[in-house]
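Hi R.,

Here's the chain you asked about this morning:
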Amino acid sequence: MKLNPETLARASSRHAWRTVGIWAVILILGFGASGALLSKALTTDFDFTNNPEAIRAQTLLQQKQLEQDVTPETFVMTGSQGATTDPAFTAKVNAALNDIRALDPSVVLQVPSQFPLSQTDKSNPQVAALGPIPSEDGTAVLFNVILVKDSDQTATIVDGLNTIQAKYSTGDTRFYMLGEPTSTADFKKISEDDLKKGETIGVVVAIIVLLVVFGSLIAGVTPIIMGIFAIGVAFGVVGLLGEVWRWSFFVPNLMTMLGLAVGIDYSLFIVSRYREERRRGRDNLEAIGMSGATANRAVFFSGLTVVIALAGMLLVPTTIFRGLAGGAIIVVLISVALSMTLLPALMSLFSDRLVKPGFIFGRGRTLEQGRAGGFWDRESRSVMKRPWVYLIVTASFLILLSVPYWAQSRADGVGRGMKKGFSGIEAIPDGIPTKDAFNVLVAKFPKESGAQSTAQVVIPGAATDPTISSQIQALDTAVAGNPAFATPQPPQTSQDGTVTLVAIPFAGEATDSQSQAAVDAVTALRDQYVPQAFGPDSGVLVGGDTAMTKDFFDISDRYTPIVILLVLGLSFILLTVVFRSIVVPAKAIVMNLLSVGAAYGLITLIFQQGGPSWAKSIADALNFTQVQAIESWLPLFLFSILFGLSMDYQVFLLSRIREEYDKTSDNSEAVAYGLRTTGGIITGAAVIMVAVFAAFASGRIAALQEMGFGLAVAVFLDATIVRSILVPSAMKLLGDRNWYLPGWLQWLPKVDVEGHAAAERVTIPDTPAELVEARDSSD
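And the predicted structure, written out as tokens:
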């Protein structure tokens, strides 16, 4: 048997119960794997697959045994004025120390002895650095506890820490915790809560739209089933892969968004084609076969374009980009596989119930039907009457929306346009324990780091060397004037005397290792303080968590133009082969770039601090969090996602136009035909996508708000302004030149993406084969 979308559809429909049973087992296994494995596979950390400066520093410290495999957890207990000298408050601090000490000793490695510290402990700098340390205003005490670094182990004591926190947060006393274990738990809880909310809103809106589009309950619910299967199976795959690979905690949210959006959209196109074939008089199995020969082929190609766009991110040597790309590719591929097999099986089982109008929803004309003289027909012809006006006005409007990306003021007053970075703890909403702990730490201990993160200066040679000793003193003097740094810790020299480590704790807002303040401090350390103290080309490395963040920014900036050019090039080649034209691909790429640029501009305007006051008012009204910097991974990620999704709509629309042009050679009529026959179904698909993305933008984490908002805005612009105005106006102006292919490219293969040849062999006379919806010939 020749394996292609048509044969898969026919085989699945003939063995419907077997196909459904196999996928049901896979879904159950997926839910089981995700329930048992997914949570521990997620992390807020990131890593590199190449060797930047921070990784070289880390490797050297590990080789020389100067870096312990531990992580700190910072605690702050606050009370009323004069609390630090109150015996009752002192007793509470010591009781809390004892309770923490009683937790799993294999996880809790070192706890301060008592408050206040003994003279012996005060005389030991490393012991004294752990605290307890009273605040200058006498209302709070800070201390640090050393834990093992393994996140799976530290996760086991989070519940115990939460119990201790509740125990000592009574009356005037409050107990705060800040560190990797507790902050990760907070991030995961917010992410999971927002995931449930986004799924609920997205599914409800999708059902409503599908009922309106199809006018049938069974036809409307079928794509929802596909979306649920795609998400469940993809979660299981990611959970299994999490045994050998850690995923960003954003990945489940991303996969749910794409699973609902792509899974539902692909099913919508195929079910619509199946209903068309049934209206033409074909029986159930033959209609499924024809859908497989046409719509399924188009879905396969569209999925391929999305995967190609996402695959560009795999080139970036960081786990964030590769994790996001990997999760997105997995859910898209599973959605395509479900569309090729499970959907034909369901259509075989549902049969006539997919085409019969519903008692409640099927009384009027469904939106999937396109007709001459209808809304989309009138709209396209109106645009083509004044193509220059519409083209200039809409293109100018999209360019205007992109202006903030290039020119908006920044909160720090340095430079203009989108500022990329990590928003860190400021991205968490107020009222979350991690955010509250950070705010209290900065307010009560502005000169203390809480030991959360340090800049690690790795120096070749021993600290006992007089030259190196004087250089270290010069470094200490230089950083003393920077409020982002606390007092450097005593130098540590490796046993072989070849490497010395100077750890410099962060202070104030730089306590958040991913904050812009911390990144700026590391930049100053690398570019100013270290060269001044040790000289240029000294071999001194600056490592640590914030140095890794800095390296991540640099790598993202370096790879972004490479990935963009690669995606644009591959897309151009693919579309050139499909449409046998170099004009249509170039035009499609320009239009997609306009919608992506507009999305970038609106993200900058709404989410980045430093913009106009009315933009802040809009953000507040939508409950969005404004931050100093947009997530550095977001622009490249959005480009890859949006380019793939927007190409979906371009392909479906342009395929219909090309099909009619090949029959009539009338460019204007072909454009009008393509727009009116795809208008309702693509609009329904776009509404679903916008609703799903907007639902996730309503979450509480700023990065997810930015992602959901950017995707929703770009899809909305692409499905409205670009598709309904820019495409018909540009194609009208270009005329027959739309389909220009140079003679030296005539050797390119003819790719029958839509399966027109198969459709024409069995098409009923006087009824044109259509890709995604039926033309109501009775109109």
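Residues 180-214 form the longest helix (35 residues).

Let me know if you need anything else.
M.
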